[in-house]
Model the fold of this input.
Amino acid sequence: MSRILIIGAGGVATVCAHKVCQNKDVFTEVMIASRTKSKCDALARVLNEKYGTDVQTAAVDADSVPQLVELLRSWKPVLVINLALPYQDLTIMDACLECGCNYMDTANYEPKDEAHFEYSWQWAYRERFEKAGLTAILGCGFDPGVTSVFTAYAAKHHFDAIEYLDIVDCNAGNHHKAFATNFNPEINIREITQKGLYWENGRYIETEPMEIHKPLNYPNIGPRESYLLQPSSAPASG
Done:
């Protein structure tokens, strides 16, 4: 793999871009694109200075398939890493199919006008990507993604059976504020205002937003009040 395109220039995209630039033998040519090019330029300056890279930048509206297609055809990436907003997943996938690019994201799709996470919209693209000979890797952020890998590894190597599983996480810091987001504020608000959901006895059980919560003692962090959210996200700590 050589040339890749990262779409997004926020907190998650910044972390990803640093990891990419730390692996220059794998990712030899990198471009960062988002709606606001100045954010991409600022991030590229940091990366280029720190890692001796030559990260390129571009402006693109990820809601626009024509703009995405124009960018992909000019840059010709092998892989597009989508770190934009969840409701932009499908337009980016459409552009990747049109231009023959592999696709990866960290958050499953949700409609722009409704706080509702679901994979069915993206799974509907499976046959089209297969026929095009392309790979699309979905939801490879932390929750799900890394936690799914940890769970599968534990089930295979450490346990004969798992009767129930709770996936929890929290921020180690304390902002001394009632609400402080750790990534896109809009997506954070969507997550905590939609109904909770958990799996028990072979079916999903729905709860009111943030209805179920309790203090949990996190290793190396201490007690944090934690809330049950949708299974696409881990409980949020306050």
Notes: The helical segments are 11-21, 37-51, 65-75, 89-99, 120-123, 126-132, 146-157, 185-193. The chain has two domains: 3-137, 157-237. The longest helix spans residues 37-51.
